[in-house]
Write a structure and sequence with these properties.
binds UDP-4-deoxy-4-formamido-beta-L-arabinopyranose; Rossmann fold; two-stranded parallel ribbon; carbohydrate metabolism; alpha/beta; UDP-glucose 4-epimerase activity; about 40% helix; seven-stranded parallel beta sheet; 13 strands
Length: about 350
């Protein structure tokens, strides 16, 4: 079976490509290389000994996308990662996000709406905002998005749901990720450090390796066990395996509905200070940090209720927080040749 992975040279995409190849799928990657490097293609091959087909296609390029599907008429499934994903950037540049995350999704669907196609959509727990009840279930209300990025995930799910309603040959699953961290055990793929990291874990590893002076902890006055915010940090390889489980559910025609959503997290919440302590234990490095004010837009607490993904997809996370942070540290050292 041939599977298209859009954004397949990106952080999560590359880990999913490795898992797909290891499960025997033939993979075709499209990526415009705007937030990654072509070297990731060789790095994937160095892990699996299989070079995925690669086409430099920008999903915003309507004609380029149609040309791609004419060139590859035998795609059975699509895992769609190609999108912009920085919350802060989306506030300052909303049209970039609506073009790259919404227009592109419409063009993708227009190319496959009359084919038998299984689609896995990269969504996010951001759609819940601050959930009223923790852990978060898939039935938690979708709240007004707090950023254009979060809005594109909410709208993206609706676009796919509405399309699948009238195109019975289209089946889709949206995976609502919590906080992906870590890197493949080979340390040959991981989160490429492009610019100043917005996310906690890459900032931690870059501080520990000496690239950043000090980590700023955004607020310790939250109503949590130690005052810092709580998130559900999931190893990217666990997350990648969830994608393969979701895809096979669709390819094997086991889905109950044309459109389903699943929360993908460990089911455990960790505070920022707990992440720092776990990193120090996993790496043996003392971390230089200071407490500063809260970051605008942050929620207090978000971690997944994982009954649905475990009972229906038969998936659950395997790596511990410490193991995930240890893999992030090994990756950081390799990237810096240390
Ligand atoms: C985690 C915690 C920060 C940086 C976002 C998106 C989500 C997904 C993951 C794309 C928070 C604190 C962070 C720092 C800190 N993105 N923090 N100092 O905001 O939970 O989720 O990234 O798919 O959709 O919303 O992740 O890693 O930015 O923050 O104290 O330098 O770490 O305040 O509590 P977040 P994050």
């Amino acid at each position: 079976m041939k599977i298209l992975v859009t954004g397949g040279l990106g952080y999560i995409g590359s880990h999913v490509v490795v898992e797909l190849q290891e499960q025997g799928y033939e993979v075709v990657i499209i990526d415009n290389l705007s937030n990654t490097s072509i070297d990731v293609l060789d790095n994937i091959k160095s892990i699996t000994n299989i070079e995925p087909a690669f086409e430099n296609v920008d999903v915003r390029d309507k004609d380029g996308l149609s040309k791609f599907f004419n060139q590859y008429p035998d795609i059975s499934g699509i895992i769609h990662f190609a999108a912009s994903k920085a919350v802060g950037e989306s506030v300052n540049n909303p049209l970039l996000y609506y073009e790259n995350n919404i227009n592109a999704l419409v063009y993708l669907l227009q190319n496959v709406q009359d084919k038998e196609m299984s689609i896995i959509f990269s969504s996010s727990c951001t759609v819940y905002g601050q959930a009223d009840v923790l852990p978060v279930t898939e039935n938690a209300p979708i709240k007004p998005a707090e950023s254009p990025y979060g809005n594109t995930k909410q709208v993206g799910e609706e676009i796919i749901k509405d399309t699948c309603k009238v195109k019975p040959n289209l089946k889709a699953i949206a995976l609502r990720y919590f906080n992906p961290i870590g890197a493949h055990e080979s340390a040959k793929i991981g989160e490429l450090p492009l610019g100043v990291p917005q996310n906690l874990v890459p900032y931690i590893t870059q501080t520990a390796i000496g690239l950043r002076e000090q980590l700023s902890v955004y607020g310790d006055d939250y109503p949590t066990r130690d005052g810092t915010a709580i998130r559900d940090y999931i190893h990217v390889v666990d997350l990648a395996k969830a994608h393969v489980a979701a895809l096979s559910r669709l390819l094997e025609k086991k889905a109950d509905e044309n459109f389903e959503v699943f929360n993908v997290g460990t089911g455990t919440g960790s505070t920022v200070l707990e992440v720092i302590a776990a990193f120090e234990k996993a790496s043996g490095q003392k971390l230089n940090y200071k407490i500063v004010g809260r970051r605008a837009g942050d929620v207090v607490e978000a971690y997944a209720q994982t009954d649905k993904v475990r009972n229906i997809l038969g998936w659950e996370s395997k790596y511990s927080l410490e193991e995930a942070l240890g893999s992030s540290w090994v990756w950081e050292k390799r990237v810096r040749n240390k």
